[in-house]
Design goal:
- The longest helix has 22 residues.
- The model has no long low-confidence stretch (mean pLDDT 94).
- α10 runs antiparallel to α11 and α11 crosses α12.
- 40% of the residues are buried.
- A hairpin with a 2-residue loop joins β8 and β9.
- With 285 residues, the protein is an alpha+beta fold.
- Helices cover 35% and strands 23% of the residues.
- The protein folds into three domains: 47 residues, 2-Layer Sandwich (Uridine Diphospho-n-acetylenolpyruvylglucosamine Reductase, domain 2); 114 residues, Uridine Diphospho-n-acetylenolpyruvylglucosamine Reductase, domain 3; 107 residues, CO dehydrogenase flavoprotein, C-terminal domain (Enolase-like, domain 1, 2-Layer Sandwich).
Length: 285
């Protein structure tokens, strides 16, 4: 099936992109990697008059570190998984990116596309919440910073306005942190049945100094269980503490029976993954 007719633009700089977004606003859609948008267009599940391809904007593809890790939204997921700077400074992000779909998808998909689509099944929104990331958002009127916890509003809904573009991802929680992404899926190339992102640092006495947690596909959007994070701070991780943390975690989850299993069975798997993950990261640190 072929999509409805649309007008295609491919600006090569941010200023040109801003002009197009101001001109077409609600009638346009940004094309990054295209793995989500193109199938929707071909199946005619959506119709968009103006498509703006941002793959030619080199200013949106970069990885830098200067007291914080900074990543452009057009960096491909495969590069996120293999980039040395990201691997050295943010184990959680590199680990999560390596577990997204398959090599073909990772080589075309972008970090910004994964985040801005805000599909509750996508992996990187929960990772950004666990990392307490900040997003630089730009439009023709200027720039503003949006915290990850304020960015994801609901399924497929973010804080981005119709003329906004994500221009920079900033991650400050890197030094002396260790994290992993625990993804439970029935197929290695499929969306997660659910997943947990954990990023942790310790005090000198082996208590938790800081911890960030993000949940994938356990609610209508990625979830940051702040109550769990606050409970774990200044504690040593053992079976009792991890068990109490899981009981708090369940308050943030919406687990239901579906083709992937019963609520009871999924809760049991989630508990094992969360408690074992907490203990694994704690022991590494």
């Amino acid at each position: 099936m072929y999509p409805d007719k649309f007008e295609y633009f491919a600006p090569d700089n941010i200023e040109g992109l801003e002009e197009l977004l101001d001109k077409y606003k609600d009638d346009s859609k940004i094309l990054a990697g295209g793995h989500s948008l193109i199938p929707l267009l071909k199946l005619r599940l959506t119709s968009i008059p103006y498509i703006i391809d941002i793959s030619n904007i080199k200013a949106l593809s970069f990885v830098d570190y200067n007291n914080a890790l900074e990543i452009g939204p057009m960096v491909r997921t495969g590069e996120v998984a293999s980039n040395k700077i990201i691997g050295d400074k943010c184990k959680l992000l590199a680990d999560a990116a390596s577990k997204i779909a398959d090599p073909q998808v990772r080589n075309m998909g972008t970090v910004g596309g994964d985040i801005c689509e805000a599909d509750p099944r996508n992996d990187l929104p929960a990772v950004m919440l666990a990392l307490n990331a900040e997003f630089e958002v730009t439009n023709s009127m200027g720039k503003r910073t949006v915290k990850a916890e304020d960015f994801f509003k609901d399924a497929y809904t973010t804080a981005l306005e119709s003329n906004d573009i994500l221009t920079r991802i900033v991650i400050k929680n890197t030094e002396n942190y260790y994290g992993k992404y625990y993804k439970y899926t029935t197929l290695s190339s499929d969306f997660a049945v659910f997943a947990i992102a954990i990023n942790m640092s310790l005090n000198d006495n082996k208590t938790v100094k800081d911890i960030g947690i993000g949940l994938t596909n356990l609610n209508s959007t990625a979830v940051k269980p702040v109550e769990v994070e606050n409970y774990l701070k200044n504690k040593k991780i053992d079976d009792r503490v991890a068990g109490e943390a899981f009981n708090l975690l369940l308050k943030s989850c919406d687990i239901e029976d579906d083709v992937n299993g019963t609520e009871k069975n999924k809760e049991k798997i989630l508990k094992n993954i969360f408690i074992n993950g907490l203990k694994e990261i704690y022991e590494v640190l």
